[in-house]
Amino acid sequence: MLAIGSSIPNWIVARDSSIAPKYPPVGLQVYTLGFLLNAPGADTRSILKQIADIGIKEIETATGGNGLYYGQKPKVFAEMAKDTGLKWIGNHIGGLPRTPAASATSTAARPRSRNLRDNIQEIVDDAAEGGCSWVICSSSAISTLDEIKRTAEVFVKAGDLAEQNNMRFAYHNHQSEFDQIEGVTAFDYVLTNTDKKKVFMELDLAWATAAGQDPVALFKKYPGRFPLWHVKDLDKTTGRPCPVGTGKVDFKHIFTNSKLSGVEHTFIEQDGAKNIDDPASSVQWLKNNIYK
Protein backbone atom coordinates (compact mmCIF):
# COMPACT_ATOMS: atom_id res chain seq x y z
CA MET A 1 0.00 0.00 0.00
CA LEU A 2 1.28 3.44 -0.88
CA ALA A 3 1.43 6.23 1.63
CA ILE A 4 -1.60 8.52 1.55
CA GLY A 5 -1.23 11.03 -1.24
CA SER A 6 1.64 9.31 -3.02
CA SER A 7 1.41 9.72 -6.78
CA ILE A 8 3.87 6.99 -7.80
CA PRO A 9 2.20 3.56 -8.02
CA ASN A 10 4.10 0.63 -6.52
CA TRP A 11 3.85 -1.35 -9.77
CA ILE A 12 6.14 1.18 -11.48
CA VAL A 13 9.04 0.64 -9.10
CA ALA A 14 11.20 -2.46 -9.49
CA ARG A 15 12.17 -4.20 -6.28
CA ASP A 16 15.35 -6.18 -5.61
CA SER A 17 16.53 -5.43 -9.14
CA SER A 18 13.58 -7.38 -10.60
CA ILE A 19 11.39 -6.03 -13.39
CA ALA A 20 8.11 -4.62 -12.13
CA PRO A 21 4.86 -5.24 -14.04
CA LYS A 22 4.27 -2.58 -16.68
CA TYR A 23 0.64 -2.01 -15.66
CA PRO A 24 -1.59 -2.86 -12.69
CA PRO A 25 -3.40 -6.22 -12.59
CA VAL A 26 -6.53 -6.48 -14.73
CA GLY A 27 -9.59 -5.79 -12.57
CA LEU A 28 -13.36 -5.76 -13.02
CA GLN A 29 -16.15 -3.54 -11.71
CA VAL A 30 -18.60 -6.35 -11.04
CA TYR A 31 -21.51 -4.03 -11.90
CA THR A 32 -20.68 -5.37 -15.37
CA LEU A 33 -22.13 -8.72 -14.28
CA GLY A 34 -24.93 -7.34 -12.15
CA PHE A 35 -27.44 -9.44 -14.11
CA LEU A 36 -25.77 -12.51 -12.56
CA LEU A 37 -24.97 -11.25 -9.07
CA ASN A 38 -28.35 -9.57 -8.55
CA ALA A 39 -30.46 -12.46 -9.78
CA PRO A 40 -32.74 -14.08 -7.16
CA GLY A 41 -30.87 -16.89 -5.43
CA ALA A 42 -27.57 -15.97 -7.08
CA ASP A 43 -24.60 -18.12 -6.01
CA THR A 44 -22.17 -15.31 -5.21
CA ARG A 45 -19.18 -17.56 -4.60
CA SER A 46 -19.67 -19.41 -7.90
CA ILE A 47 -19.95 -16.15 -9.85
CA LEU A 48 -16.79 -14.78 -8.24
CA LYS A 49 -15.01 -17.99 -9.29
CA GLN A 50 -16.17 -17.43 -12.88
CA ILE A 51 -14.78 -13.88 -12.71
CA ALA A 52 -11.41 -15.14 -11.49
CA ASP A 53 -11.36 -17.84 -14.18
CA ILE A 54 -11.40 -15.26 -17.02
CA GLY A 55 -8.18 -13.72 -15.71
CA ILE A 56 -9.44 -11.02 -13.36
CA LYS A 57 -7.28 -10.33 -10.29
CA GLU A 58 -9.02 -7.40 -8.56
CA ILE A 59 -12.64 -6.30 -8.20
CA GLU A 60 -14.81 -3.33 -7.29
CA THR A 61 -18.39 -3.73 -6.17
CA ALA A 62 -21.55 -1.63 -6.56
CA THR A 63 -25.00 -1.63 -5.01
CA GLY A 64 -27.48 -3.84 -6.83
CA GLY A 65 -30.80 -5.62 -6.62
CA ASN A 66 -29.56 -7.90 -3.84
CA GLY A 67 -28.32 -4.95 -1.82
CA LEU A 68 -24.82 -3.96 -0.82
CA TYR A 69 -22.20 -6.67 -1.29
CA TYR A 70 -24.74 -8.87 -3.09
CA GLY A 71 -26.60 -9.88 0.04
CA GLN A 72 -23.46 -10.63 2.05
CA LYS A 73 -21.84 -8.96 5.02
CA PRO A 74 -18.62 -7.14 4.00
CA LYS A 75 -16.34 -9.61 5.76
CA VAL A 76 -18.15 -12.62 4.30
CA PHE A 77 -18.03 -11.18 0.78
CA ALA A 78 -14.31 -10.41 1.22
CA GLU A 79 -13.64 -14.00 2.28
CA MET A 80 -15.54 -15.30 -0.75
CA ALA A 81 -13.48 -13.10 -3.05
CA LYS A 82 -10.20 -14.12 -1.42
CA ASP A 83 -11.10 -17.81 -1.64
CA THR A 84 -11.47 -17.48 -5.41
CA GLY A 85 -8.19 -15.57 -5.83
CA LEU A 86 -9.70 -12.09 -6.10
CA LYS A 87 -8.70 -8.96 -4.20
CA TRP A 88 -11.58 -6.65 -3.26
CA ILE A 89 -10.30 -3.09 -3.74
CA GLY A 90 -13.32 -0.87 -3.09
CA ASN A 91 -17.07 -0.33 -3.26
CA HIS A 92 -19.15 2.27 -5.13
CA ILE A 93 -21.64 4.37 -3.20
CA GLY A 94 -23.66 7.48 -4.07
CA GLY A 95 -22.59 10.95 -2.94
CA LEU A 96 -24.98 13.87 -2.55
CA PRO A 97 -28.54 12.56 -3.20
CA ARG A 98 -30.48 14.18 -5.99
CA THR A 99 -33.65 16.05 -5.02
CA PRO A 100 -36.61 13.92 -6.23
CA ALA A 101 -38.79 15.59 -8.84
CA ALA A 102 -42.19 16.77 -7.65
CA SER A 103 -44.97 14.38 -8.58
CA ALA A 104 -48.49 13.44 -7.63
CA THR A 105 -47.10 10.50 -5.69
CA SER A 106 -44.73 11.84 -3.06
CA THR A 107 -41.34 10.11 -2.72
CA ALA A 108 -40.65 11.76 0.63
CA ALA A 109 -41.75 8.70 2.62
CA ARG A 110 -39.55 6.29 0.67
CA PRO A 111 -36.33 5.23 2.38
CA ARG A 112 -33.31 6.92 0.86
CA SER A 113 -30.42 4.76 -0.28
CA ARG A 114 -27.26 4.97 1.75
CA ASN A 115 -25.05 7.79 0.57
CA LEU A 116 -21.86 9.59 1.53
CA ARG A 117 -23.62 12.69 2.84
CA ASP A 118 -25.80 10.82 5.31
CA ASN A 119 -23.97 7.55 6.01
CA ILE A 120 -20.26 8.20 5.60
CA GLN A 121 -19.17 6.59 8.89
CA GLU A 122 -21.14 3.41 8.18
CA ILE A 123 -19.81 3.24 4.63
CA VAL A 124 -16.19 3.61 5.74
CA ASP A 125 -16.71 1.05 8.51
CA ASP A 126 -18.09 -1.46 5.99
CA ALA A 127 -15.13 -0.88 3.66
CA ALA A 128 -12.73 -1.40 6.54
CA GLU A 129 -14.51 -4.61 7.58
CA GLY A 130 -14.14 -5.92 4.03
CA GLY A 131 -10.45 -5.04 3.92
CA CYS A 132 -10.96 -2.52 1.12
CA SER A 133 -8.39 0.18 0.54
CA TRP A 134 -10.76 2.55 -1.30
CA VAL A 135 -14.09 4.28 -0.71
CA ILE A 136 -15.47 5.37 -4.09
CA CYS A 137 -18.32 7.71 -4.96
CA SER A 138 -20.19 6.33 -7.97
CA SER A 139 -22.00 9.61 -8.77
CA SER A 140 -23.43 12.69 -7.08
CA ALA A 141 -25.89 15.52 -7.61
CA ILE A 142 -24.05 18.13 -9.71
CA SER A 143 -26.73 19.76 -11.86
CA THR A 144 -26.30 23.19 -10.25
CA LEU A 145 -23.31 25.10 -8.92
CA ASP A 146 -24.73 24.78 -5.41
CA GLU A 147 -24.88 20.99 -5.77
CA ILE A 148 -21.32 20.95 -7.07
CA LYS A 149 -20.11 22.93 -4.06
CA ARG A 150 -21.99 20.73 -1.60
CA THR A 151 -20.67 17.61 -3.33
CA ALA A 152 -17.10 18.89 -2.92
CA GLU A 153 -17.78 19.51 0.78
CA VAL A 154 -18.98 15.92 1.19
CA PHE A 155 -15.86 14.70 -0.59
CA VAL A 156 -13.61 16.64 1.78
CA LYS A 157 -15.23 14.86 4.71
CA ALA A 158 -15.03 11.50 2.96
CA GLY A 159 -11.35 12.01 2.18
CA ASP A 160 -10.58 12.92 5.79
CA LEU A 161 -12.47 9.96 7.23
CA ALA A 162 -11.00 7.50 4.73
CA GLU A 163 -7.49 8.69 5.61
CA GLN A 164 -8.21 8.28 9.33
CA ASN A 165 -9.05 4.63 8.60
CA ASN A 166 -5.97 3.98 6.42
CA MET A 167 -8.02 4.09 3.24
CA ARG A 168 -8.42 6.56 0.40
CA PHE A 169 -11.36 8.20 -1.34
CA ALA A 170 -12.09 8.67 -5.05
CA TYR A 171 -14.89 10.02 -7.25
CA HIS A 172 -16.02 8.22 -10.41
CA ASN A 173 -17.01 10.48 -13.30
CA HIS A 174 -19.63 10.25 -16.01
CA GLN A 175 -20.04 12.74 -18.89
CA SER A 176 -21.91 15.37 -16.89
CA GLU A 177 -18.86 16.25 -14.78
CA PHE A 178 -17.47 18.01 -17.86
CA ASP A 179 -20.58 20.16 -18.51
CA GLN A 180 -20.13 23.90 -18.02
CA ILE A 181 -22.32 25.21 -15.18
CA GLU A 182 -22.01 28.91 -14.42
CA GLY A 183 -18.56 28.94 -15.98
CA VAL A 184 -17.14 25.87 -14.22
CA THR A 185 -17.28 22.09 -14.55
CA ALA A 186 -17.87 19.75 -11.63
CA PHE A 187 -14.71 17.89 -12.64
CA ASP A 188 -12.47 20.95 -12.33
CA TYR A 189 -14.27 22.31 -9.29
CA VAL A 190 -13.83 19.10 -7.30
CA LEU A 191 -10.17 18.70 -8.22
CA THR A 192 -9.25 22.32 -7.51
CA ASN A 193 -11.24 22.66 -4.26
CA THR A 194 -10.17 19.48 -2.49
CA ASP A 195 -6.87 18.21 -1.08
CA LYS A 196 -4.91 16.38 -3.79
CA LYS A 197 -3.63 13.99 -1.13
CA LYS A 198 -7.11 13.04 0.07
CA VAL A 199 -9.55 13.29 -2.83
CA PHE A 200 -8.74 11.37 -6.01
CA MET A 201 -10.57 10.55 -9.24
CA GLU A 202 -11.52 7.19 -10.64
CA LEU A 203 -11.37 8.18 -14.28
CA ASP A 204 -13.91 6.47 -16.50
CA LEU A 205 -11.99 6.48 -19.76
CA ALA A 206 -15.07 6.00 -21.91
CA TRP A 207 -17.26 8.72 -20.41
CA ALA A 208 -14.36 11.18 -20.43
CA THR A 209 -13.82 10.36 -24.12
CA ALA A 210 -17.55 10.74 -24.83
CA ALA A 211 -17.42 14.19 -23.24
CA GLY A 212 -14.73 15.22 -25.74
CA GLN A 213 -11.87 14.93 -23.25
CA ASP A 214 -8.44 13.42 -23.89
CA PRO A 215 -7.62 11.37 -20.77
CA VAL A 216 -3.91 12.01 -21.27
CA ALA A 217 -4.51 15.77 -21.24
CA LEU A 218 -6.33 15.29 -17.92
CA PHE A 219 -3.32 13.36 -16.58
CA LYS A 220 -1.11 16.29 -17.50
CA LYS A 221 -3.47 18.83 -15.96
CA TYR A 222 -3.89 16.91 -12.69
CA PRO A 223 -0.87 14.58 -12.38
CA GLY A 224 -1.18 11.83 -9.82
CA ARG A 225 -4.93 12.35 -9.20
CA PHE A 226 -6.11 9.26 -11.12
CA PRO A 227 -5.02 6.14 -9.20
CA LEU A 228 -8.17 4.28 -10.32
CA TRP A 229 -9.47 3.81 -13.87
CA HIS A 230 -12.57 2.32 -15.42
CA VAL A 231 -11.40 0.69 -18.62
CA LYS A 232 -14.54 1.01 -20.71
CA ASP A 233 -15.06 1.24 -24.46
CA LEU A 234 -17.84 2.79 -26.58
CA ASP A 235 -19.24 1.49 -29.84
CA LYS A 236 -18.17 3.68 -32.76
CA THR A 237 -21.70 3.84 -34.15
CA THR A 238 -24.09 3.72 -31.20
CA GLY A 239 -21.87 5.22 -28.49
CA ARG A 240 -22.97 2.47 -26.12
CA PRO A 241 -20.53 0.49 -23.92
CA CYS A 242 -18.96 -2.45 -25.70
CA PRO A 243 -16.08 -4.91 -25.06
CA VAL A 244 -12.70 -3.23 -24.68
CA GLY A 245 -10.82 -2.85 -27.96
CA THR A 246 -13.88 -2.99 -30.20
CA GLY A 247 -14.88 0.68 -29.90
CA LYS A 248 -13.49 4.18 -30.18
CA VAL A 249 -11.46 4.70 -26.99
CA ASP A 250 -7.72 4.96 -27.73
CA PHE A 251 -6.41 2.65 -25.01
CA LYS A 252 -2.89 2.38 -26.39
CA HIS A 253 -2.47 6.17 -26.20
CA ILE A 254 -3.89 6.21 -22.68
CA PHE A 255 -1.90 3.28 -21.26
CA THR A 256 1.34 4.51 -22.83
CA ASN A 257 0.94 7.73 -20.83
CA SER A 258 -0.41 6.06 -17.69
CA LYS A 259 2.53 6.79 -15.39
CA LEU A 260 1.60 10.48 -15.19
CA SER A 261 -1.89 9.59 -13.97
CA GLY A 262 -0.66 7.74 -10.88
CA VAL A 263 -2.77 4.70 -11.78
CA GLU A 264 -2.70 1.78 -9.35
CA HIS A 265 -5.83 -0.20 -10.22
CA THR A 266 -7.71 -0.61 -13.50
CA PHE A 267 -11.20 -2.07 -13.71
CA ILE A 268 -12.94 -3.24 -16.86
CA GLU A 269 -16.54 -2.07 -16.89
CA GLN A 270 -19.20 -2.66 -19.51
CA ASP A 271 -22.67 -1.35 -18.77
CA GLY A 272 -25.22 -3.66 -20.38
CA ALA A 273 -22.93 -6.67 -20.83
CA LYS A 274 -24.98 -9.67 -21.90
CA ASN A 275 -22.84 -12.48 -20.48
CA ILE A 276 -19.44 -13.18 -18.98
CA ASP A 277 -17.98 -13.58 -22.48
CA ASP A 278 -18.05 -9.77 -22.83
CA PRO A 279 -15.58 -9.01 -20.01
CA ALA A 280 -13.64 -12.16 -20.93
CA SER A 281 -13.04 -10.76 -24.42
CA SER A 282 -11.97 -7.44 -22.86
CA VAL A 283 -9.42 -9.25 -20.69
CA GLN A 284 -8.05 -11.09 -23.72
CA TRP A 285 -7.79 -7.90 -25.81
CA LEU A 286 -5.88 -6.14 -23.05
CA LYS A 287 -3.48 -9.07 -22.67
CA ASN A 288 -2.90 -9.23 -26.42
CA ASN A 289 -2.58 -5.51 -27.10
CA ILE A 290 -1.64 -3.70 -23.88
CA TYR A 291 -0.10 -6.15 -21.42
CA LYS A 292 1.96 -8.04 -24.01
From TrEMBL:
It comes from the Bacteria. The keyword Isomerase applies. Keywords: Isomerase. It holds the Pfam family AP_endonuc_2. PANTHER family: HYDROXYPYRUVATE ISOMERASE, INOSOSE DEHYDRATASE. It comes from Daejeonella lutea. InterPro entries: IolE/XylAMocC-like, Xyl_isomerase-like_sf, Xyl_isomerase-like_TIM-brl. The keyword Cytoplasm does not apply. Residues 49-256 form the Xylose isomerase-like TIM barrel domain. GO terms for molecular function: isomerase activity. This is Sugar phosphate isomerase/epimerase.
